[in-house]
Amino acid sequence: MKRRIRALTAATLALTGGCGAPAASAPNASPPAARSGLGSAGVPDPCALLGRDDVRELTHREVTRIDEDGAGADAGTRYCQWQQEEGQLAVFLSRVDPAGFRVIVDGNETVDGVGDEAYWNSGHLYVLSGTLQVDVYSRGGDDLPDAKRVAEAVLARL
């Protein structure tokens, strides 16, 4: 399971051009978010933003297990994953360069009414709010509407 989560995190970072991930080769260097004027590289813990009851209400599915990332407050990317009786929900939060986010939007299904900009691709709803990217993966229900409700709830709690 941890390999799957790491793979999803790697895929998310690949899609965002690695924005928000600390540079592996320069341990004392500032994270890209700080160097690019995006502010603090730290992002909120999605597990703290949405509880078990919130997820059940938003997705209409019971939560059977919660997988947390265990990252510290200074992490550039955070995730939380809720295993559900009939599906799964994962939320990734990352600092991004809005211009880079807009490049990725091209060619994907644009989603209106959530965040500054949003698009849907391969079961993920990617939402830009300022310099924060919210990536919601929902599987097992009415996936895009569920993901949109989750993204709206996350943004409302920031």
Helix content: 25-40%
One letter per element, helices H and strands E, the order comes to HHHHEEEHEEEEH
DSSP strand count: 7
Structural class: alpha+beta
Main β sheet profile: 7 strands, antiparallel
| Proportion of strand residues | 25-35%
Which whole number gives the mean pLDDT? Answer: 79
Terminus-to-terminus distance: 28 Å
Low-confidence runs of at least 5 consecutive residues? 1-40
From the spread of the alpha carbons, the general shape counts as globular
* Tally of alpha and pi helices: 6
Which strands sit side by side, in order, in the main sheet? Answer: 1-2-3-7-6-5-4
Radius of gyration over C-alpha positions, nearest whole angstrom:
15 Å
Structure description:
The protein is of the alpha+beta class. Helix content is 33%, strand content 28%. The protein has a seven-stranded antiparallel β-sheet, with helices on both faces. A hairpin with a 2-residue loop joins β6 and β7. The protein is globular. The N terminus is likely disordered.
Secondary structure: elements and pairs:
Elements: H1 2-15, H2 32-35, H3 46-49, H4 52-59, E1 63-68, E2 77-84, E3 87-95, H5 98-105, E4 109-110, E5 117-121, E6 124-129, E7 132-139, H6 143-156
Antiparallel strand pairs: 1-2, 2-3, 3-7, 4-5, 5-6, 6-7
Question: Key terms for this structure?
Answer:
33% helix, seven-stranded antiparallel sheet, 158 residues, alpha+beta, globular
Concise structural overview:
With 158 residues, the protein is an alpha+beta fold. The chain is built from six helices and seven strands, in the order H-H-H-H-E-E-E-H-E-E-E-E-H. The protein has helices at 2-15, 32-35, 46-49, 52-59, 98-105, 143-156, and strands at residues 63-68, 77-84, 87-95, 109-110, 117-121, 124-129, 132-139.
